[in-house]
Write a structure and sequence with these properties.
Blueprint: H1 4-24, H2 29-47, H3 54-81, H4 88-116, H5 125-144, H6 149-169, H7 175-192, H8 195-212, H9 222-241
Helix pairs in contact: 1-2, 1-3, 2-3, 3-4, 3-5, 4-5, 5-6, 5-7, 6-7, 7-8, 7-9, 8-9
Family: Belongs to the 14-3-3 family.
Protein name: 14_3_3 domain-containing protein
Pfam families: 14-3-3
């Protein structure tokens, strides 16, 4: 008789096997296979009314990051090509591809949001991670959908709730908290169009993290170092467009 534990173990192991190849080639067959396995894990956990483990949540994030990221990159490429396309026929083809990509992005993002729907928001890093993912995928929907108001509202709600929880439960140099601040500030800049709020949020996260570095060991945490650099880079770019008083 096959039990829940053995079935979960099988899907998790298959997802783990597919993961390295997915990182190497996000357009590969292995990325789609990884998505299939992590979906099965989430559905089994939901059926048993159980929370995802840390490894399972990370694989869920990685799997959809690859597939959705590929679609978003392609959508952005068509958006950049279209204004300079003077041939009427080619422009029509580009618009058609862009619409197809938009529909795929909206569908895949909604799939992720539904997969997360039954996961309980706990008062710890797992809860922040979950809310951040919800915010991210609503943001991706708002990015491509002309009717973005509802997506924007849901993204703002998730990011705000996640930020409140992160300040209560996580240190300023926690990678999940920093990643949330990075993505939330990008949302404010790109989707909401509020440069001032985006800069203030990014600057606050950066300053708090740098202030806490003396109390935390970030050696061997390249993700933290990378996020701090991305926050710096964004601030440099955004301030040139909308200077913030120091």
């Amino acid at each position: 008789m096959v039990d829940l534990a053995s079935t979960l173990a099988e899907h998790n192991e298959l997802a783990r096997i597919y993961e390295p190849r997915g990182k190497a080639a996000s357009t590969s067959f292995s990325s789609l296979e990884m998505v299939g396995e992590v979906k099965a894990v989430v559905q089994l956990r939901d059926a048993a009314q159980e929370q995802l483990s840390m490894d399972e949540r990370n694989r869920l994030s990685v799997a959809y990051k690859h597939t959705t990221g590929r679609l978003r990159t392609a959508w952005r490429a068509t958006s950049e090509i279209l204004p300079s396309t003077r041939n009427f026929t080619i422009a029509g083809l580009v618009r058609r591809v862009r619409t197809q990509l938009k529909d795929e992005i909206l569908s895949q993002c909604q799939e992720v949001i539904q997969l997360l729907a039954n996961q309980k928001v706990t008062q710890d890093e797992d809860g922040v991670f979950l809310l951040k993912m919800r915010g991210d995928y609503h943001r991706y929907q708002a990015e491509v959908d002309g009717e973005k108001a509802e997506h924007q509202l849901q993204a703002a709600k998730a990011y705000t709730e996640a930020s409140t929880l992160a300040k209560e439960a996580l240190t300023p140099v926690n990678s999940v908290r920093l990643g949330l601040s990075l993505n939330h500030s990008v949302f404010l800049f790109e989707i909401v169009g509020d440069r001032t709020a985006a800069c203030l949020l990014a600057r606050e996260a950066l300053e708090q993290a740098l202030g806490a570095l003396g109390d935390a060991d970030v050696e061997g945490q390249p993700e933290v170092t990378l996020i701090l650099q991305l926050l710096r880079d964004n601030l440099t770019i955004w301030r040139t467009e909308d200077p913030i008083d120091e």
